[in-house]
Design goal:
single chain; Adenylosuccinate Synthetase, Chain A, domain 1; two-stranded antiparallel ribbon; 4 helices; 8 strands
């Protein structure tokens, strides 16, 4: 687990029992691809924050899977997948993502779990947001510069 580089010890995440992949930008960093590459070495893949606007594409052979909320580890048969407390789940979009798995006969039951403390966004929430944006009470550009 420890390597010696230039006389200094450092941890090697590939040999540890826990590995975290965090992004330092607003996305599009390749986190989903990296997690997919590391997934076979671990028992659990968990998302701990984010909502349906995030996303990653995983290519397996000639098949492509588009996930926004489901952890990419779901494509690996031996991995438990968790959508954690800090995630915002859109149930309709979540079901649409599950349908990709059902079409390809990829089992997800008893391997994919949503925390009971995860947040949920419903159609009413997006309707309210659209009304605010249309009335310019909250401008889109203001939400990102607070």
């Amino acid at each position: 687990m420890l390597k010696n580089l230039s006389g200094r010890k450092c941890l090697n995440g590939l040999n540890s029992q826990f590995c975290g992949v965090l992004g330092a930008q607003w996305g599009d960093e390749g986190k989903g691809k990296l997690i997919d590459m590391l997934a076979d070495k671990y028992d659990v893949v968990a998302r701990f924050n984010g909502g349906a606007n995030a996303g990653h594409t995983i290519k397996v052979g000639s098949d492509k899977y588009f996930f926004h909320q489901i952890p990419s580890g779901v494509l690996r048969q031996n991995i438990l997948n968790v959508v954690g407390n800090g995630c915002v789940v859109d149930p309709l979009r979540f079901l649409k993502e599950l349908s990709q798995l059902d079409v390809k006969n990829i089992p997800w039951k008893n391997r994919l779990f949503i925390s009971e403390n995860a947040n949920m966004t419903l159609k009413g929430h997006t309707d309210i947001e659209a009304l605010f944006e249309a009335s310019e009470i909250i401008r889109v550009e203001d939400r990102h510069h607070r």
